[in-house]
Specification:
Length: about 150
């Protein structure tokens, strides 16, 4: 039986007051895994349009999208899940970074702004998130080859 094609997603690296926006998207807060906000790409819309939509849905923020900074692949070695995430640097252009919000789809259940030290004390994916968020912005995009999924 053929395996499904990899899923494509776009994610945003958003810094505000030297802190990175991370979200938890596990239903019922069943996991302590954090990641950059974003999500699956819908056919017929650009990566930027998809990312702007996902960020607004998940956080209530409007963003300006900059350069790509990471391509990350992850998969479930014991299953069929395989996803390719393209990360973009982004800045806030609207919305309240500290305001109350609710993801209408109910996927993102928590968000927080973290320093590099706070991020490193959490469980997060991808492994290179601190480097792309807090490293020199002029560095070339990174590529993370196929990482196993975490649960």
């Amino acid at each position: 039986m053929p395996r499904p094609m990899p899923r494509l997603a776009a994610r945003a690296v958003i810094l505000h007051r030297s802190r990175l926006l991370v979200v938890n998207a596990w239903p019922g807060q069943t996991s302590d895994l954090w990641c950059a906000p974003g999500g699956g790409v819908e056919r017929g819309a650009s990566l930027h349009d998809n990312l702007a939509r996902e960020i607004h849905e998940e956080t209530g923020l409007r963003i300006a999208i900059g350069a790509p900074c990471l391509v990350n692949e992850f998969h479930d070695p014991g299953g069929d899940f395989h996803q390719v995430d393209i990360y973009f640097r982004a800045t806030i252009t609207g919305g309240d970074p500290d305001g109350a919000w609710t993801d209408p789809a109910g996927i993102v259940n928590r968000r927080r702004w973290v320093s590099e030290a706070e991020l490193r004390s959490l469980r997060y994916k991808p492994d290179s998130l601190p480097a792309i968020a807090f490293g020199p912005p002029e560095s070339a995009p990174l590529y993370d080859p196929l990482e196993p999924i975490l649960r």
